[in-house]
Records
---
Amino acid sequence: MSNQRTPRDWALLLALVAMWGSSFMFNSIAVATLPPLTVVAGRVGVAAVVLISIVYLMGKRLPPPGKAWLPYVVIAIVGNAVPFYLITWGQQVVESALAGILMAMMPLATIALAHFLIAGEHLTRRRTTGFAIGFLGIVLLMGPAALAGVGGDVLRIVSQLAVLGGALCYALQSVLTRLIIKGDVLVSAAATLLIAAVIVVPVALWLDRPWLIAPAASSVAAVVWLGVAPTAIATVLYFMLIRSAGPSFMSLVNYLSPGVAVMLGLLVLGEAPQANAYLGLALILAGLAFSQSRPRGS
């Protein structure tokens, strides 16, 4: 696979950064008055309804029952149901800054898996160095004080491991998507989210009994947003980017998303980033440029 990325690849990447970069903030708003499982169920349920409606309005159809659904089941479990719940549950305890740092392990895990499983996705020194520089930038961007929260009591440690587990699920999903998801990307995204909804929604109804909950309007709005943009639309863009540019390039989303978190903090919450934030963002961009550049003479 060539290291040359098209403008379309970069546009898809930046769109995913914008959508997924907002997820941590909206997750925090959602779990303020809703249980994590209900948030996940609402998120994938809304996303499934949106994409299935679009599929049928465009005259397309989901695959007939049978083996064709097996890849969608795998991706729904590994890439939606399990990581969504792990991260949402973990964010009840883990701050957004620390969650962002833990999620930054996803690109490193992705390039390691892709090296062994996908042709053309070799673990080069340049790519590894670039990703390491980017990870250091994330630590600085989020603030080194966030690392002080690593460890702690048993619940905190388990919550951090849950977020890290979600990151590793996303890494595995990226590689598996490239290997097993074929055909129309819109149909694939709709089928995957339908399976995720079928798995999660009944469990949430059984365990959380959400009809007895009186959530804040802000939590409900956050769930709807999470379903429409960071889940429904982003899943389609995600499949498109994986197919055209590969999982290692797609995983750069997790290096750029913290920049969106800083911007939202500045514009929405009135936070003023410190000098380390700008240095961290510079390192992230430097790592991105280095990992995607080609050695002289190649």
---
Amino acid sequence: MIKNVILFLKGFAMGLANVIPGVSGGTIALLAGIFQRFINALKSFDLEALKLLSKFKFKEFAQHTDLFFLIVLFLGEGVSILTGAKLLEWLFKNYEVHVWAFFFGLILASVYYVGKMVKKINIYKVLLAITGAFLAFGFSIITPATENDNIFYLVFCGAIAICDMLLPGISGSFTLILLGNYKLIVIDSISHLNFAVLIPVAIGVVIGFLLFSRFLSWLMKTYADQTISVLTGFIFGSLVFIWPWKKPLYLMQNGHEVFNSHGEAVVEGYEKFLPELTAQTFWAIAFMILGMAVLCVIEELSARRAKRIEAEKIEKE
């Protein structure tokens, strides 16, 4: 029973990480010592699992997929995501600049920690990182990230986000910010259980896991340094997306604002500006530093855990 409670709490921590941009649920799984088991359980949903299920061998199916482990873990994640979304909704309404500043600090620090994953640095990989940064910056100029509730785009968001959530150091929520749908999916739809949005996203999550997660796993194994180099640059260049001080530019048609199906004005982009030196600005900078510190602590604990596991393996051998 205690083991299940601990596993539930680990899932809760992963869920909370997944709703906060800059923090990866994969990193928390690594810190909690369940990352490898989690990945193995997810990958076990294969043809063999389908065969067992088709023959109604439920006990064998549960053993093959480590089903009970996943149920308890996902239950913890689900409760965490629902409660976390409610909290973030309140924070965005009352302290929007401070929240974005905190996220900015998290993601700024993640540039360093993701970059650290590159084993051998050379000019080729530096150029890949610079390319990633310019690519992200170019996206911010050419096609600013804006909210889009098109059903096919929501499926796409779910597919891409789940791939990132499986990888330590890569934040799925951050990806949703880049895609323009973080607030729509994580803040609005989850907290209010808007199934018109959540169902397409869930479909995308399933598709993303089945089709892309294995490809990403192969990519990270075969071209790990090159992939991480591009991701590091992309994350750095993408900081412009979440600059805390910005004003929304609303889509206009015939001199009037365009509204979406929820009755909200459609944001076409953002006008970013440098803030005045006020008390609010200093508080925002403090939260930015706090965000950096939080990620540093998480990554340090994760590194210590990984070293301890490695040392235990060596002792056993």
---
Amino acid sequence: MLTKRIIPCLDIKNGRTVKGINFVDLRDAGDPVELAEIYAQTGADELVFLDISATEERRRTLADLVLRVAEKVNIPFTVGGGISSVEDVDRLLKCGADKVSINSSAVKNPQLINDLAAKFGSQCVVVAIDAKQINGKWMVHLVGGKVSTELDLFDWAKEVEERGAGEILFTSMDNDGTKDGFANEALAKLSTELNIPIIASGGAGNMQHFTDTFKEGKADAALAASVFHFKEIEIVDLKKELKEKGIPVRL
């Protein structure tokens, strides 16, 4: 059985790690490279870095951050934010990233998913999907959740898989930062309907929430930020708890 992955997420704004609630009210959480190094040493399976201002401000993701992280960590890491071309991805992978995450650019230009998968392999391509419930339907949002679309979460996820994405990072905007648990019903539906790994994001508040998202949400990986950044949960303790509950993890 494949082990379940625990992934700290570092949202980057102006070179610092930040964390908010429902995608707003950001507060500083430290230096991203220092945090990455600590996570790599204390049991994280992977890391995700999202330059949350890159798309909004039309900037490219900072390649120098990737270089600095690659020098310090020995676990796989994904970089996202403002990536909109094959050239962007080529540069980031050459700087040391293992995967890239695309979101708004994939919706605006779905062919980009095909192009990246063809050139770099599906294992390098993570499509991030931010969605919230509107009138009972999960609708996709762009630009850090600021722009609504008419896209249905499940329809878009299926298209993303068909186009060659290797993984989906699903963030529930309704759950993000609330610490009330992950959107397990939606996660379970994604996991059932798709064949590629689903990373759960948005809502982690305690260790039980991780157990629930692996058991009820059928997630392949669970991503969290503030509970790790502010040491509310230590990854080594979380993994011991998960193992005791029969969930396969790498200790």
---
Amino acid sequence: MKDYFQYYRDGSSLKYVGAHTVKSFPLACGYCGKSVAPNTGYEIVDSVDGISWTVATIYECPFCKNPVIYFNNSKETIPGAKYGREIKNLPENIATLYDECRTCYANQCYTSSQMIARTLLMHIAVEQGAEEGLSFAKYVDYLDSNGYIPPNGKQWVDFIRTSGNVANHEIVIKEKEETEKVISFLSTLLLVIYELPNML
């Protein structure tokens, strides 16, 4: 490592030891969600037979000051950017689960993200008046029969139900693209149920 990665917390902010100017790179911070192009941090260098190259860079986010690691080979960051739009006016329990779902995605925990998405649909149904303790299928039917699912949207909920069942009961690793579809539908559903009505 070119410089040892060291930081400490000074009150509510992070202080970095030995951070220096590094090659700037545009990325989305996995902590604050800001699109940034930081140029302060540390380089992780590897070398063979006297030839060295940068394997990864630990950037300091200029907004929230948290460290974001960028890997040169895979072009990925840890933590990654959260997928899905921010939704306003969510009840606390719904907001918590939606954030967990998006955070799992950002950390490449796609199976966990889809399992939380399934749980989130159940919480939405209960929050909208369904009884507790019902089966997932009954919660889907409740959302559908009470007009919460947009036209032609039930197949999306069935997709999440089926996908969630597989994640819960079979040894199957979920993929990034599939998880993006699930979160896209959830964000649309939350937008229709919570954000748009409160804008009027």
